[in-house]
Design brief:
The chain is an alpha/beta fold and 209 residues long. The protein has helices at residues 3-21, 26-58, 94-104, 124-131, 159-162, 174-185, 197-204; strands at 65-70, 73-79, 114-120, 135-142, 167-169. The N and C termini lie far apart (56 Å). Bound molecules: zinc ion.
Length: 209
Amino acid sequence: MRWMEVARVMIPFVAFDFLALSGRNHGDVGREVHVEEERQGDVYWMKKALDEARLALDEGEFPVGCVVVSEGEVVATGRRRGTAHGPGNELDHAEVVALRTLMAQGGLASGKKATLYCTMEPCLMCFAAILLSDIGRVVWAFEDVMGGGTSCDLSSVGPLYQEKGLEVVSRVRRNESLALFKAFFSRPDNAYWQGSFLEQYTLKAAVGA
Ligand SMILES: [Zn+2]
């Protein structure tokens, strides 16, 4: 028997033994491949949200960007408005801007779900708006230690919110998002959340933490 023939015979047994020794079955391997693909997808789509955040920063706005993705396509984008000249408003958050854009386009097709990528953890207002939309997953980059709403205990609120089963994934491309917030809070003319706990936390936050 030539070497190539031996290899052809042996490979299925080697693969089988590996699976047996590792205590896995084919279903587990399939799930791991799916999780890895999902993680790589999250890293890829968060880059698009970061592009929106950079545009917001260039416009003098608080650098939050958002994209909504469904079936491998960006179906809506949004970035923060209303902060460039002082306290501004607390309605035009990037997630709300993106969800409004999605609604203006007629929303998702019936039965479709989407993932929302945001460069900062959604606040309580945005988290509630997301729960009431067709978003099935939320992926965020930098933690909002002052106003983040995704750790809200949904068992303590009404059944409308509890039954959504929303999946939340945190800290994807966190350092790139943190760099934008550090740049924003380092501007001497910034008046948005100046002197706040969020500003102090962000300027001290370690990259990689
Ligand atoms: Zn918000």
